Amino acid sequence: EAVVSTQSTGVRKIEPVLTTLPDMVNKLTTLRAIHEHAAQFSTNLSALESTQGSVTKNLANQAALLKKVEDHIAANLKQINDNCANVSSRIDKLTAPKKK
Q1: Of all helices (H) and strands (E), which one includes residue 100?
Q2: Tens digit of pLDDT for each residue in 41-75?
Q3: Rounded to an integer, what distance in angstroms lies between the CA atom of residue 80 and that of residue 72?
């Protein structure tokens, strides 16, 4: 009888907690799902930041290459203009009236 009394007292102590237990389980289940979504979001955000860093680096490299191409085109255009001027000068000399 003492054992039953002790057990009965123990059950009465946890009885208020037992009524809230289903709500606590539901809240914990919901929190778990939210936590999993947050963890996935964090992973996706890290991947996005890494990709953004790569894209930024590639854009900087492309800008440097574009600058080099522009410089080479400008140098080539100058050389073409100089060559055209030289050809024009040679044609003028060849077509000029000869002195007697």
Answers
A1: none
A2: 999 999 999 999 999 999 999 999 999 999 999 99
A3: 12
